[in-house]
């Protein structure tokens, strides 16, 4: 039995309906073969649990949208930051979705797999490398950031870039938490869809 079962349409509050519409709008920007709900209407990823906090769902989706619309980063740079987080967190649905979204962003399968394994992908531009390296450090960060690491990232990305990557990294750690309490897992990749493997250094406790 699902931990956060689908809420029947006739029982959805206005806030939950708004969240549904926001989620559908989000996925309209991604490849059409990505699945975000199963045949019973259960949403994968963070969405099934999100709908159970209807007082937060609209604000959360608005914040997530604004974070990912930052004009200071390219689509590729944003994707590198997301995958850096996923190299540190075992999140089945987000691994499923962003394996293919990374290809959609123009990365090769080899580059995508390297990034998911916590390795700087080969062939990146200098700024892209800086984004991935910073995001990976932030995903691992459990104490104040070293000044040397900050200055190195700032020299390429600027202060706004460092702060902007922190928003993306912390946002996807949030996604990871909401996804992993749901227990919904992920659909099987469709034929011809690329599926990266998770970082072998990740361990379950």
Core attributes:
205 residues; mainly alpha; AhpD-like; globular
In short:
The protein is built from eight helices and no strands. The protein is mainly α. The chain has one domain (18-182): AhpD-like.
Structural description of this entry:
This protein is mainly α and 205 residues long. It has one domain (18-182): AhpD-like (Up-down Bundle). It has 8 helices and no strands. It has helices at 14-27, 47-50, 54-68, 75-86, 92-104, 109-116, 126-140, 147-182. α4 (75-86) runs parallel beside α7 (126-140). The model has no long low-confidence stretch (mean pLDDT 92).
Mean pLDDT: 92
Structural class estimated from helices and strands = mainly alpha
CATH top level? Mainly Alpha
Would you identify the CATH architecture?
Up-down Bundle
Please write the string of helix (H) and strand (E) elements.
HHHHHHHH
Biggest beta-sheet profile: none
- Can you count the helices? 8
Shape: globular
Number of domains: 1
The CATH topology corresponds to AhpD-like
Fourth-tier CATH superfamily name: AhpD-like
Q: Whole-Å distance between the termini?
A: 23 Å
Low-confidence stretches: none
* Number of E-type strands: 0
Domain Carboxymuconolactone decarboxylase-like: 57-134
InterPro entries: AhpD-like, CMD-like
GO molecular function: peroxiredoxin activity
Protein name: Carboxymuconolactone decarboxylase-like domain-containing protein
């Amino acid at each position: 039995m699902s931990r956060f079962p689908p809420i029947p349409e006739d029982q959805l509050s206005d806030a939950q309906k708004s969240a549904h519409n926001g989620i559908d709008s989000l996925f309209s920007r991604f490849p059409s073969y990505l699945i975000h709900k199963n045949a019973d209407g259960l949403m994968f990823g963070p969405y099934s649990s999100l709908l159970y906090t209807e007082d937060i769902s609209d604000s959360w989706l608005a914040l997530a949208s604004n974070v990912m619309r930052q004009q200071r980063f390219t689509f590729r740079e944003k994707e590198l930051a997301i995958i850096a987080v996923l190299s540190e967190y075992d999140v089945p649905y987000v691994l499923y979705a962003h394996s293919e979204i990374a290809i959609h962003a123009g990365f090769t399968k080899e580059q995508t797999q390297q990034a998911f394994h916590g390795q700087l992908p080969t062939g990146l531009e200098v700024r892209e490398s800086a984004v991935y390296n910073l995001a990976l450090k932030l995903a691992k960060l459990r104490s104040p950031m070293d000044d040397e690491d900050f200055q190195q990232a700032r020299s390429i990305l600027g202060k706004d870039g460092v702060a902007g990557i922190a928003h993306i990294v912390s946002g996807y750690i949030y996604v990871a938490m909401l996804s992993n309490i749901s227990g919904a897992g992920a659909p099987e990749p469709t034929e011809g869809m690329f599926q990266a493997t998770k970082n072998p250094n990740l361990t379950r406790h």
